[in-house]
């Protein structure tokens, strides 16, 4: 089963034919139908983020809310100690813990964009949930990014780690629930340090208020933060997953179940599934 979405939330598509220069494999070809316009891909590269407003229909939102609530209720490895910098409850490896999240493995609205940004061979980097509760302190985050690891000085053959992250909101993010702030173009600031414990407004920031079922697709090094919740807020549930080149290591967070759903899936997996789970596509 895949995750249904509203076609009307996608303004256009385009096609890419990749030919891989590998004579040992007969110069393989990968056709990609990108669920985005060429202009959107250019803007994503330049600004570092792309918004898909109300992409999921109400029935899908409710299905995923129920799956997340059930998984949080029974999970024994919840992360709660983020303090003000990373408030709320975090749950990792959701693809291994509930089939509703495994449905995102080959989800074209985001996978096709990852292949447009990185090329034909990509893998999932992990699948995390974050839950913020009403009338609870520290339900915000500091300014941060998810992937950088830039040394100073930058050596001649340095391979910059670049990732694509997807923030999928299962509840409204508005002024009361704590919207998302991003700094467009900040993923290009590889020669600038980002200070710790910074919760203030930044020049050029954009504050995104979006209805439930909306996605923010962004570069892993984009500067962003969740603003504080306000009195009268509701629960704020976020699904966070991402992609990177097939040869790049996945995220390191959380405790992966030994007999998780992806482990079972690999037993009879096709080539694309093995690639997406990090077991092929890099040689």
| CATH fold name | Jelly Rolls
- Tell me how many strands there are: 11
Uncertain stretches of 5 or more adjacent residues? none
For CATH, the homologous superfamily is named as q2cbj1_9rhob like domain
Instruction: Classify the beta-strand content into a percent band.
Output: 15-25%
Your description of this structure?
With 283 residues, the chain is of the alpha+beta class. It has a single domain (7-276), classed as Sandwich (Jelly Rolls). The protein is built from 6 helices and 11 strands. It has helices at residues 38-47, 58-74, 99-102, 108-118, 261-266, 271-276, and strands at residues 14-19, 29-34, 49-52, 89-91, 122-132, 164-169, 180-182, 206-208, 215-219, 224-226, 236-245. The strands form 3 sheets. The protein has a 6-stranded antiparallel beta sheet with strand order 3-9-6-11-5-4. The mean pLDDT is 94.
Question: Would you kindly provide a brief summary of this structure?
Answer:
Helices cover 19% and strands 21% of the residues.
List keywords for this structure.
283 residues, Jelly Rolls, three-stranded antiparallel beta sheet, alpha+beta, six-stranded antiparallel beta sheet, 11 strands
């Amino acid at each position: 089963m895949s995750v249904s979405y509203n076609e009307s939330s996608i303004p256009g598509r385009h096609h890419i034919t990749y030919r891989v220069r590998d004579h040992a494999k007969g110069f393989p070809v990968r056709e990609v139908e990108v669920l985005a316009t060429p202009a959107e891909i250019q803007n994503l590269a330049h600004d570092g983020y792309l918004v898909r407003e109300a992409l999921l229909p109400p029935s899908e939102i409710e299905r995923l809310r129920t799956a997340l609530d059930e998984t949080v209720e029974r999970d024994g490895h919840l992360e709660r100690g983020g303090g003000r910098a990373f408030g709320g409850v975090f749950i990792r490896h959701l693809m291994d813990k509930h089939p509703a999240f495994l449905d995102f493995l080959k989800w074209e609205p985001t996978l096709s964009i990852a292949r447009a940004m990185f090329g034909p061979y990509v893998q999932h980097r992990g699948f995390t949930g974050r839950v913020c509760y009403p009338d609870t302190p520290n339900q915000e985050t500091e300014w941060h990014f998810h992937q950088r690891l830039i040394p100073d000085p930058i050596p001649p053959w340095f391979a910059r780690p670049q990732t694509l992250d997807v923030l999928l909101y299962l509840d409204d993010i508005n002024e009361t629930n704590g919207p998302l702030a991003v700094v467009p173009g900040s993923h290009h600031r590889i020669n600038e340090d980002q200070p710790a414990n910074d919760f203030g407004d930044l020049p050029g920031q954009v504050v995104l208020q979006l209805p439930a079922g909306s996605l923010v697709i962004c570069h892993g090094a984009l500067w962003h933060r969740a603003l504080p919740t306000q009195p009268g807020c509701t629960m704020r549930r976020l699904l966070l997953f991402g992609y990177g080149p097939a040869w790049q290591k996945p995220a390191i967070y959380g405790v992966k179940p030994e007999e998780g759903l992806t482990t079972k899936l690999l037993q009879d997996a096709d080539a694309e599934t093995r690639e997406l789970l990090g077991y092929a596509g890099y040689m």
